[in-house]
Amino acid sequence: MAIMMPASDQAVLARRAEIVAALRAIVPGEGVIDSAAEMRAYESDGLTAYRQPPMVVVLPDTTEQVSLVLKYCAGQGIKVVPRGSGTSLSGGALPLEDGVLLGLGKFKRIREIDFDNRAVVTEPGVTNLAISQAVAHAGFYYAPDPSSQIACSIGGNVAENSGGVHCLKYGMTTNNVLGCEIVLMSGEILRIGGKSAENSGYDLMGVITGSEGLLGVITEITVRILQKPETARALMVGFAQVEAAGECVARIIGAGIIPGGMEMMDKPAIHAAEAFVHAGYPLDVEALLIIELDGPSVEVDELITRVETIANGCGSTTCQISTSEAERNLFWAGRKAAFPAVGRISPDYLCMDGTIPRGALPKALARIRELSEKYQLGCANVFHAGDGNLHPLILYDANKPGEIERAEAFGADILRACVEFGGVLTGEHGVGIEKRDLMPEMFSEIDLNQQQRLKCAFDAQGLLNPGKVFPTLHRCAELGRVHVHAGKLAFPDIPRF
Amino acid sequence: MDTLKVRDAKDVEEVVRAAIANEQPLEIIGHGSKRSIGHTMATNAVLDLSALSAVTSYEPNELIVTLQAGAPVADVLSLIDSKNQQFAFEPMNTAPLLGTPALGTIGGMISAGLAGPRRIKAGGARDHLLGAHAVSGFGDSFKTGGKVVKNVTGYDLCKLLAGSWGTLSVMTEVTLKVMPKPEAERTLLLPGLDDAAANKAMTAALGSPFDVSAAAHLPKSAFRSRTDGLTDGLTDGLGDIAGQGEALTLLRLEGITASAAHRAGSLRELLAPFGTATLIEDAASSALWATIRDVLPFAAGGALGAWPVWRIVCPPASGAALGAQLAHETGGDVIYDWGGGLIWAALPPKGDAHAPSVRLRTNAVGGHATLIRAAEDVRRSVDVFHPQAPGVTALSERVRAGFDPKTILNRGRLTRGTAT
Predict the structure, then answer these.
(1) What is the pLDDT of residue A339?
(2) Considering the entire predicted model, what is its pTM?
(3) Among B113, B139, B174, B370, which one is least packed by beta carbons within 10 Å?
């Protein structure tokens, strides 16, 4: 494992049998798993390069049990790692050797569907897609659609602030969540928000969303639902140069058009996807844009024409416009299967997730090509082009000595480039362990300390999911100290009135 | 009392550090346009950010603008308007309601986080703040977020800063999302509905696929302020449509012209059981929504100018029952926005501004109420911001102390009796 996790607490490990018994007293029956064979299912999440069996797995099915487990662990100084469906691509649910893995998989019930308030109250283990399915009969859906939506849990979506293809127009998880029930590490159960459009006081829901399981364990979520657009159509546009495709994206946005989705693939990704799903992608182009417009037909038809004109103006070499749902789905099939398609042409791949200003797309692609040469590893690129979110897929073979290290170094250089171009380390996958040690590329020690003070407000002992997000951990007492700057007793000499 | 007009982020750090050393609180202001919202603060000096007024960068194609916190809202709005863009959350202009000069800074706009009618579709200030530089109560400059629309790197401290009323940090620079202005807007007007029926009509509209971007209801009584006239050229934007003196339910559709017109037609059919809707377009429509956004029927210069005003946020389908009950109990007036999820209530003057009844009724539906306008002596005896459950209050206080352990910034503004 290339990344250092917090040192295991030997005293805790020595008491394992006692801890397992105490947890069994809280969660009876099959809810506590301690056999090595059964725990193997939990040793990794979607970032499979990292594996670590936990000390014990607990699968509670009530909020009270979650509260009692956390209270017990807090009292005993035992670390806890929360987990939803385990689809994190950044290692957010990677277990700790001396930690309890707290799985929320049994929280599978949708508690209330409230069409009048356009809200669904759900348990965290319900999958993202299941929410949309539960309200589909009334024409509603839940907008954020990460590509893992058939498997990923809504609790995990809140923890990671998940995005998806449609978040350019409809926002990320944070823009679509109204409230939650959360259990703090102390075992205290709190309710934040509800069915109102906004909460009173500080926006705690806003910081809980995307906190990567470090602030609390979510046991209920209220999301807002939307009416499905009347129709959707897509254009598939090919370009002889990546720069032209980047320019096309900028001009569409510049023209005031916010598509439902706007995706870009480069040549290696196009070829891999076409070989896999035969979507009819042009193979002689350097970049392919899939642009989806949604809304009433009268609007979609008009915008399709406008986008087509813009694409022509940018020198597109091919342009197909979907005329049926089947055709639209076919355009998307290749893009949606891009990750497994790349999995077929390479034994292993690393999926990166930086965001850059849209205008920097050509520059970023050029840099990725240079790095690909330098590290002698292939790279296929798929982007959420509309919001500048890059997903370079670095191809490597874990069985060849040194390739995983080279792939990770390549990935780190891509993320450094994202920051250099004015962007950020992660657009939707989270920091987790994957980008943890790169955080200083983007944030100063003061910035990171301020974030950790928030952690202290929720979990002063630092027992919840330690080792994720922050490269260096500080004690809360140390972070809370106010430094009085000597000689600063008087206000500085600035204009007074 | 000193007013310290800072010139840059370094000045802000120095002032806060000196305040920490002296253990003396600071009041943070931009133009001071919302100073009357909240409790009276303990303060030893005023930190004035209005000189930090530059536009750092504006990139229309990236849909972002980076601004110093003291940049005047009016200037920024006209800048982005020149590129046919807007803040999609329709920030409220509080000047008419509070009776202050038409001013306000970007920092104040974010710190107050008062979003307008499009909140239901586009989100609030918190959804449009992408990044910030700020000075904490530790006297340190920090940054959070970034300059791109899609970012999950680290905790999203921007969410906390938006709506924190200057109690967590002094923002010095912010990056905000801007969005294209819609090509056209259409508003359907349904006359004569009572609050309950209007709530049902708004629920039907917002549950339709027609992408309604705003839904409001003005009960008949909301027009009574017009009979006394508005002072000093203040117009309420209602124009002739209020001529009948009937209640009005308003539903807005925005987008490309053909689409807005098409959806207006479809929505009119859907709402036929509630009556025959009339249609207004573009400039007339936007003037009307500015009236709702800025709550002009309760303007300080109007007939109800001396009445305390509550801003109540609740589950939208509970709006009418709550609002009608409050109006009936107190003899006050209400206006509904956000499809019923936002109630503006102007209640007859009373020492406690009817707080017990407002809070009781609001709690019963899971909402929260803020006393936006009231005389200082009323605010001394009433909690301006909605009291929360003890566990949430305690957590919020720990969060606050994590930014400002010595309570240097806007001490006492949010919680009654904490100024000393």
Answers:
(1) 87
(2) 0.96
(3) B370
